[in-house]
Design brief:
228 residues; alpha+beta
C-alpha cells in the first residue's frame, strides 16, 4: 500500500530575490500553485535589422548578415498565478493575502526609503540622480530553468474578500523579461546566471534525438546540391 509519506511532493515554481554582491537569497516567493500554462516568446536579435523587404532584396550588406546574430535572443514569459488564503493556513486572518500581493508589488517599485533618499539629493541640488537599482530577481521553474528576470507586467484580479475587505483570493497575470548579457553590465552576477541558463539550453539541445532525412522525403544529395 502506498503511504502519503511516500508520494513525492511537487516542486513549486517561484521567484528568488538575490543580493547581487554576495549572491545570497534575500527573499523567496514560492508560487502557491504552479501555473497550468506558460506563454514564452523568443525573438532573435538579427544583425540585418528589419524584415524581408521583398522585390529583390535591399543590398549585399543585408544579404551578408542574413545568418548573423548580434546578441542573445530576447525572451519573455507570461503566466497566471493563483493565490488563495483558504489553502494557506499559515496566513494571518487580519491581513488576508495582502502580504503576498505586497511582496510581488514591491518587485516593480522602489522602497519609500529609496524615494526619500532620492528626494533629499534633489533638494540638495544634485544635478544628476542615478535611477534606483532594484535587487537581482530570479525566476525558477525547476532545476533546469533558473534565470535572471525583470518583472514587466503585474495585473491583479482580486475575486474574494473577508469581512474586513482584505483580499483572500486573487489571480495574477505576470510578465517577465529574461535578462541577458546585453542587459547586464560585465561581471554582474546576473550575467553569470544567464550564461548558466544558456548553457543548460545547450546541454538539453545536445541530448535531443535527431531525425533522419528520409522522414522528410530527402537524401544527402538533395541537401548538398540544393535541388528538390
Amino acid at each position: 500500500m502506498t503511504r502519503y509519506a511516500d508520494i513525492p511532493k511537487p516542486i513549486r515554481s517561484g521567484i528568488v530575490i538575490v543580493d547581487p554582491e554576495r549572491g545570497t537569497p534575500q527573499r523567496i516567493i514560492v508560487l502557491q500553485f504552479n501555473p497550468d500554462t506558460l506563454e514564452r516568446s523568443i525573438a532573435p536579435q538579427a544583425a540585418g535589422g528589419g524584415g524581408d523587404s521583398g522585390g529583390g532584396g535591399s543590398g549585399s550588406g543585408d544579404r551578408n548578415e542574413a545568418l548573423r546574430l548580434k546578441g542573445p535572443a530576447q525572451e519573455t514569459w507570461k503566466f497566471t498565478a493563483e493565490i488563495d488564503a483558504t489553502d494557506q493556513l499559515e496566513i494571518a486572518a487580519p491581513d488576508g493575502i495582502h502580504p503576498q500581493l505586497a511582496t510581488l508589488e514591491m518587485l516593480v517599485q522602489p522602497t519609500s526609503a529609496q524615494l526619500r533618499a532620492a528626494s533629499r539629493l534633489s533638494q540638495k541640488g544634485t544635478i544628476e540622480i542615478s535611477p534606483i537599482e532594484m535587487p537581482l530577481t530570479l525566476f525558477t521553474w525547476g532545476s533546469k530553468r533558473v534565470m535572471p528576470v525583470r518583472l514587466t507586467e503585474l495585473s491583479i484580479n482580486e475575486s474574494a474578500f473577508d469581512v474586513n475587505l482584505n483580499p483572500i483570493r486573487a489571480s495574477l497575470s505576470i510578465g517577465l523579461k529574461v535578462l541577458t548579457v546585453s542587459d547586464l553590465p560585465l561581471g554582474h552576477r546576473g550575467a553569470e546566471l544567464y550564461y548558466a541558463h544558456l548553457a543548460q539550453k545547450e546541454r538539453l539541445a545536445g541530448v535531443a534525438r535527431s531525425g533522419g532525412l528520409g522522414s522528410l522525403g530527402l537524401n544527402a544529395g538533395d541537401i548538398g546540391t540544393g535541388r528538390g
